[in-house]
């Protein structure tokens, strides 16, 4: 007689037959997946390192270019200043000194204003610097300032009184150079010394002797 196989025994045999194969496939799949993940994990990391290296290298190159450009610009600017300001020279070796941002020339210190004032206020501003509106002693000195100031207008220390021109310190003007115009206050422009109304606002030029 044939033996009867119950449902539970049939199910058990099916599971026993399938389990090894399923288990084997699952393990192989896991190992493959781990291998893929391992390979895949190294690749992005390598790419990231390469990208970082390239980026850092680009930053270094750009920084180097900027530094070189700044050095070239600084050198060019220094050369330009030297060409435009030949009168700015060191007085330390001669034992003389001018205040910061003042210009030493022919034994005097000069202040060239950026602001504009009328003649009287310009005189007061110079006095606050322990100076006077600039005294120009010779035609050579006037020519120098004419060439340096170009066509801009700058008050200097001459004013007209009843008996003629006088310097702001009270000394008499000895006609070292001509002063054009019929005004009562003198200024320097690109043509030389001129005069106009003292109430007009212009830049101004202060001076005092160089000090030991």
Helicity, as a percent range: 40-55%
C-alpha-based Rg, rounded = 45 Å
What is the makeup of the main sheet? 9 strands, mixed
What would you call the shape?
elongated
Oligomer: single chain
Tell me the structural class: alpha+beta
Please state roughly what percent of the residues sit in beta strands, choosing from under 5%, 5-15%, 15-25%, 25-35%, 35-45% or over 45%.
Answer: 15-25%
Mean model confidence by pLDDT: 73
Cα distance spanning the termini: 139 Å
Helix run count: 3
What's a quick, concise take on this entry?
With 212 residues, the protein is of the alpha+beta class. 47% of the residues lie in helices and 19% in strands.
How is this structure best described in words?
- The chain has 212 residues and is an alpha+beta fold.
- The protein is built from 3 helices and 9 strands.
- Strands 1, 2, 3, 4, 5, 6, 7, 8 and 9 form a 9-stranded mixed sheet that branches.
- Strand 7 (185-189) and strand 8 (192-196) form a beta hairpin.
- The protein is elongated.
- The chain starts with 6 loop residues before the first helix and ends with a strand.
- The model is unreliable at 1-25 and 78-95 (pLDDT under 50).
- Residues 105-207 form the C-type lectin domain.
Task: List descriptors.
212 residues; alpha+beta; transmembrane; C-type lectin domain-containing protein; NKR-like_CTLD; secreted
């Amino acid at each position: 007689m044939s033996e009867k196989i119950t449902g539970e025994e049939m199910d058990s045999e099916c599971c026993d037959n399938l389990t090894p194969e399923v288990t084997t496939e699952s393990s192989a799949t896991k190992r493959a997946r781990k291998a893929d993940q391992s390979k895949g994990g190294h690749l992005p990391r390598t790419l990231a390192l390469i990208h970082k290296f390239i980026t850092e290298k680009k930053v270094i190159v750009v920084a180097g270019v900027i530094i070189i450009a700044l050095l070239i610009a600084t050198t060019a600017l220094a050369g330009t200043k030297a060409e435009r300001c030949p009168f700015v020279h060191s007085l330390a070796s001669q034992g003389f000194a001018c205040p910061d941002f003042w210009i030493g020339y022919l034994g005097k210190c000069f202040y060239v204003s950026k602001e504009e004032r009328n003649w009287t206020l310009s005189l007061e501003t110079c006095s606050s610097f322990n100076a006077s509106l600039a005294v120009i002693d010779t035609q050579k000195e006037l020519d120098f300032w004419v060439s340096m100031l170009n066509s801009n207008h700058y008050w200097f220390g001459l004013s007209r009184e009843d008996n003629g021109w006088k310097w702001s310190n009270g000394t008499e003007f000895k006609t070292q150079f001509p002063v054009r115009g019929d005004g009562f206050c003198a200024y320097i422009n690109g043509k030389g010394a001129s005069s106009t109304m003292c109430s007009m606002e212009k830049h101004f030029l202060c001076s005092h002797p160089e000090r030991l």
